Amino acid sequence: MSNDSSNTNGKSRGIYLLPNLFTTAGLFSGFYAIVASMNDRFIEAAVAIFIAMVFDGLDGRVARMTNTESDFGAEFDSMADIVSFGMAPALVMYNYALADLGKIGWLAAFIFVAGGALRLARFNTNLGSSDKNFFQGLAIPSAAAIVAGLVWVGAEYGVEGSDMGGFAAVITICAGLLMVTNFRYHSFKDVDWKGKVSFLVILVIVLVFVIVATQPSLVLFSIFFLYALSGPVLTIKNVKKLKLGHVVGDDDEDDADFNDNKETKKEADKAEKED
């Protein structure tokens, strides 16, 4: 009986270990990116950050599939994210293009790290209260992909980092600031991955993979750059009059991240009065 108990406990620990192994792999990828950039291996550093994104996407899904979600896993994931998608992209970009800018360079890198930390803190405290179909502000992995993608493109095409320092600083700062805005970004969590799709959809997916494989650095950077632009466009499109509260702030009534909160509240108040 004790053997059965120990086997059960061993199995339970093994299952709970699985998603955290993916998180650890993502953390290692981010750490490796920092080390690689310190040795001027910028393509390897950028690729490592994208690999960390793959592991970050897998750990949560594995936890849900194996019913092993836990508070520890959620906290560990956030700690890993700030390293892999906050510190790593900022330091990789700093070592590649920002170091020669002096104070402006390290301030740009710090703004990105601070934006990432604030983005994660807001995400963790808003769990269960925001619209699952949209992100409030640019997600930190997407911001990391923009910064890492720019490094990858520059290094692959032989561009000296010092020659694009100003542009790199602007991109890094903008990516950091977009994370703490209220711009709405599609989360794609409403996509039914288990449902049936047409042959055309499969064909499009295959074509996307082929295009990415031909020029991975340029294509990935372009995809995430356009995704970053989609937030302001979507927000402006969905609000009748753009106010400061739609861009920054934490007042849920003014957040563009939520679907017509003001109108919903007015309708609820009206119905209450009628009752």
UniProtKB/TrEMBL annotation:
Its EC number is 2.7.8.8. Residues 250-275 are annotated as: Disordered. PROSITE patterns: CDP_ALCOHOL_P_TRANSF. It is found in: Endomembrane system. It holds the Pfam family CDP-OH_P_transf. GO terms for biological process: phospholipid biosynthetic process. Residues 259-275 have a biased composition (Basic and acidic residues). The keyword Cell division does not apply. It comes from the Bacteria. The keyword Iron-sulfur does not apply. It is a multi-pass membrane protein. The chain crosses the membrane at residues 15-35, 79-98, 104-121, 133-155, 167-185, 197-213, 219-236. It catalyses: a CDP-1,2-diacyl-sn-glycerol + L-serine = a 1,2-diacyl-sn-glycero-3-phospho-L-serine + CMP + H(+). It is an enzyme of class 2 (transferase). One of its GO terms (molecular function) is CDP-diacylglycerol-serine O-phosphatidyltransferase activity. Its main location: membrane. Keywords: Lipid biosynthesis, Lipid metabolism, Membrane, Phospholipid biosynthesis, Phospholipid metabolism, Transferase, Transmembrane, Transmembrane helix. GO terms for cellular component: endomembrane system; membrane. NCBIfam families: pssA (TIGR00473). Belongs to the CDP-alcohol phosphatidyltransferase class-I family. This is CDP-diacylglycerol--serine O-phosphatidyltransferase.
